[in-house]
Amino acid sequence: MAGSTNGKQDEQALRDPVVHFRSYLYGGTSGLLSTIPTLIVFPVYKTVFRQQIHNTTVHQAVGQLYREGFVKLYRGVAPPLLMRTLNGTLLFGMQDTLLCQLSLSSQNVIPISALPALAGMGAGVVEALVFTPFERVQNVLQNGQNDRHLPTLKSVLIRLKSQGAVSGYYRGFLPITARNTLGSALYFGLKGPMCSFVAGQGLSPVASSFVSGTLTSMAISLTLYPLSVLVANMQTQVGGEVKGVMACWRMLWKSRQQSVALLYRGGSLVILRSCITWGITTAIYDKHVRPSEKLDNKK
């Protein structure tokens, strides 16, 4: 009887909309606070972006930004700041919602340990659907070659709208979907075990969450960086011949002289930035979630 009662309580908790709302709220809060390091390290991100699309060294990329001037240094910063806040809300909230649904509908079918990763994969698909247009606008704005004929955000939006969904806002959707689904699955699949392992080394809960978020992000960024380079090269140009994913990949691989080292040019800075932002995001989210879980258990 006690086991049956506990099972019913767990099921009611999984169906409780307040529990789901907290995940969206805490995810949004962690995403909002993580915009601070995003704003600070944006010049670093822009340097990496130039390396990705022009295959230049750090010195050459910095030289490009220096010649363009400080006024244009933060051109394109609005989309990633908005994305960070909305991304946290959507990613954590949607993953928790899908996890609860999977827990209710796939009992004894899918291993419990695999559910967070599976829910993360579904959240990654939704994330790609929502944020591909943001990433497209961001990449167009950051490409210095677009400054003359697309000088403002409004001009970029009008131009992309005129090209239709596939060639405009949703250019690069397939590699973005692949990157986001795999990245989200790895993040939610590894975050819990990694946090438990780190906590076993004697670190505090907040420190454990930060380190687990950092290490998990490092593994994901290192693995999926080539997809980010492909997306950047597909999305920077506006107009001209529209090539498919495989054609763009062959052009990218050829431009990198079929060298993995050149393909990963700028990767170290991306990994560093990702580790900082996702370490902070994970620590903030987990810090909010733990008291809520204790409160729900008391109920």
Provide structural commentary.
- With 299 residues, the protein is mainly α.
- It is 79% helix and 0% strand.
- It is built from 14 helices and no strands.
- Helix 11 (205-235) crosses helix 14.
User: End-to-end span in angstroms?
Assistant: 18 Å
Q: In angstroms, what is the radius of gyration?
A: 21 Å
Q: Proportion of β residues? A: under 5%
Name the poorly predicted regions.
1-10, 294-298
Give me the secondary-structure topology.
Blueprint: H1 2-15, H2 17-33, H3 35-40, H4 42-54, H5 58-68, H6 78-105, H7 115-142, H8 153-162, H9 164-167, H10 173-199, H11 205-235, H12 245-255, H13 260-263, H14 267-298
Helix pairs in contact: 2-6, 2-14, 4-5, 6-7, 7-10, 10-11, 11-14
Keywords:
about 300 residues; mainly alpha; about 80% helix; globular; disordered N terminus; disordered C terminus
In short:
The protein has 299 residues and is mainly α.
